[in-house]
Amino acid sequence: MKYVATRAGTSDVVEISGGDGRYRVTLGDEVWDVDARLTAQGIYSLLIGGVSYVADVVDRDGTCLVDVGGESYEVLVEEQTRWIIRTRGGAAGAAHGQTLTAPLPGKITHIAVRPGDRVRAGDTLVVIEAMKMENEFKASAAGTVAEVRVQPGQAVNPGDVLLVVES
Amino acid sequence: MTRLKKLLVANRGEIAVRVIRACRELGIATVAVFSEADREALHVLMADEAYPIGPPPATESYLRIDALVDVARRAGADAVHPGYGFLAENAGFAEACAAAGLTFVGPPPAAMRAMGDKTAARTLARDLKVPMVPGTLEALRSDDEARTRAREIGYPVMLKAALGGGGKGMRLVRQEAELAEALRAARSEAGAAFGDASLYLERAVAEPRHVEIQVLADAHGGIVHLGERECSIQRRHQKLIEESPSPCVDAELRARMGEAACRVAAAAGYVNAGTVEFLVDAERRFYFLEMNTRLQVEHPVTEMVTGLDLVREQLRIAAGEPLGYRQGDVTWTGWAIECRINAEDPFGGWLPSPGTITGLRAASGPGVREDSGAYEGYTVPRWYDTLLAKLIVWGADRPTALARMLRALAEYQVVGVRTTIPALARIIAHPDFQAGRLSTALLERILPALRPSEGRFASIAVIAAVLAEYERGRRPAPAVAADGAPPSRWRWSAPSGWSRP
């Protein structure tokens, strides 16, 4: 499972797997094996490389407040796809010039253009369903649709080229 | 001698719990009172009996003399302990208790009145030749008089409300140009807070220490002092950390201050536990400030170093017993420090942080005492002061006590509300505090540099936050509601964790 943790204005991808008290957490290029127990509501015991930490975690308006080692941190944790939708979804469609790639995993539910169509900035190009939400991706500049590489109902992964627009 | 059998505690929170504990040890039955906001408060759970006294605002519940006396009478109580705050220094309440045949655990109303008026108390101290900060004894009659007297005393001067307390109506005036505006502001504040805009003037002492002397007086002329408490760590005139003894007081100064405090208390006809406050300047000269006619929040540090239970002593004195010891019998051992754990966000402007305490692990172990009004699952009401608990430690000497306090603060876990704990740890660790270089200006000076985190545990915090979110997603039904409150009010056992050892 991939999350994006945002703290002090910096966002990092955090990958976590495992369960029932034993987890593997990848943060940047570091991998941590974490033995974690919930000892009371919001009070976590973490054993990381033999070092014992007690972390208080509480949710405040969607942000995690974490107290550990006498210090306090505010961490916003989002599933990676939700983070992508929030930060890039919708308007910022044709990211790399004229090539629109899928920014998140999902399913194509609608393709609004065909090859040869002229589009203006802000026109809807495709709709991807992810996180049970329909996310519209729009043209960032005017141009002509050169290629459509996906079909409705098709599953896409991040980085898949969806369509190409030429200016 | 009247033996007390059943006592009504006219208070709430940790002090109500403290009084109930002393009563239980003495075999005195206890009656709690509670506002509609306090049905689940710890003092209600701990008392033998508990009765509602009205809606959440204190003016409609804990400050209602008629309701309190009525409950005491109906419950068959024979005594009332006022705690601190609320009606503790209200002579009218003490008189109403007496009129209803109830023993009031506190000083006689006349002594309360004599000390409650600050200018009258200063006049008494002057007549007793107790040192005072140079200033006016009577309330200032006009701006002109204030200007003349301020010149005589010498700037900087401090304007104070005659009926003051808690820093309300206080203004530091550095030079004459600031005087008129300071008079106006202080009068308006004093009028709003105390219903009396009378002010007096004192010379401002630079970087003073606030040191107070605990006294105990019985109804038979016996009086002793229990030494000092250093209370210089204050934020906006609210004490945050107290200790006994004071790093600036030696046996000789303690004896002189104690003798002065006893002289003031005796002259006022004082009986029961009381506290005489002094300022101590950089040359270790002390000046009488005022007398507090009640048990103080910070009384436990005195208990830890003297071995006396002050509430027990209060109850014995109220029952008419003599002290049974003299000044020479009072001894002091080791060092005690108290930290006030308030439901406030020290890194968020110290704003109150009411809410539900979803997780709580109090500190314990050698030399640690916790006087608390909170428990896991308790919802901190927004109606009253923010004090949740007092963490008190004892050590053989000051360095031992400081190390122990840092250890205890690190153990203390509160989840669900923000507390002063992280700020307290940083103050205790500050070089000036460690060195005992204390003054009432210290905290305001070092607060701006207190940061919520230094980033040493940033990765651990991120891992903990992601873990919490990951497990929240994996659980079929969330064990924590969106607002962070436990899913059920009827959670008696530990919450069902997602993995238990």
Topology overview:
The complex is a heterodimer of chains A (167) and B (501).
Chain A: E1 2-7, E2 10-19, E3 22-27, E4 30-40, E5 43-48, E6 51-60, E7 63-68, E8 71-79, H1 80-88, E9 99-101, E10 106-111, E11 118-119, E12 124-130, E13 133-138, E14 143-148, E15 155-156, E16 161-166
Antiparallel strand pairs in A: 1-2, 1-8, 2-3, 3-4, 4-5, 5-6, 6-7, 7-8, 9-16, 10-12, 10-15, 11-14, 12-13, 14-16
Chain B: E1 6-9, H1 13-26, E2 29-35, H2 42-46, E3 49-54, H3 65-75, E4 79-81, H4 91-99, E5 103-104, H5 109-116, H6 118-127, H7 143-153, E6 157-161, E7 171-173, H8 179-194, E8 199-203, E9 209-217, E10 223-235, E11 238-244, H9 251-267, E12 272-280, E13 286-292, H10 299-306, H11 310-318, E14 335-342, E15 344-345, E16 351-352, E17 355-356, E18 359-361, E19 368-372, E20 379-380, E21 387-395, H12 398-411, E22 413-415, H13 421-429, H14 431-434, H15 442-446, H16 458-474
Parallel strand pairs in B: 1-2, 1-4, 2-3, 4-5
Antiparallel strand pairs in B: 6-7, 6-8, 9-10, 9-12, 10-11, 11-14, 12-13, 14-21, 15-16, 17-20, 18-22, 19-21
Helix pairs in contact in B: 4-5, 12-13
Give an overview in words.
With 167 residues, chain A is mainly beta. The two termini of chain A are 38 Å apart. In chain A, strand 6 and strand 7 (63-68) form a beta hairpin. The longest helix of chain A has 9 residues, at 80-88. Chain A has 2 domains: 2-80, Glycoprotein, Type 4 Pilin (2-Layer Sandwich); 91-166, OB fold (Dihydrolipoamide Acetyltransferase, E2P) (Beta Barrel), CATH 2.40.50.100. Helices cover 5% and strands 61% of the residues of chain A. An 8-stranded antiparallel sheet of chain B has the order 13-12-9-10-11-14-21-19. Chain B has 16 helices and 22 strands. Chain B has helices at residues 13-26, 42-46, 65-75, 91-99, 109-116, 118-127, 143-153, 179-194, 251-267, 299-306, 310-318, 398-411, 421-429, 431-434, 442-446, 458-474; strands at 6-9, 29-35, 49-54, 79-81, 103-104, 157-161, 171-173, 199-203, 209-217, 223-235, 238-244, 272-280, 286-292, 335-342, 344-345, 351-352, 355-356, 359-361, 368-372, 379-380, 387-395, 413-415. With 501 residues, chain B is an alpha+beta fold. Residues 477-501 of chain B have low confidence and may be disordered. Helices cover 33% and strands 23% of the residues of chain B. The chains are: A mainly beta (167), B alpha+beta (501). The interface between A and B is large, with 47 and 48 residues.
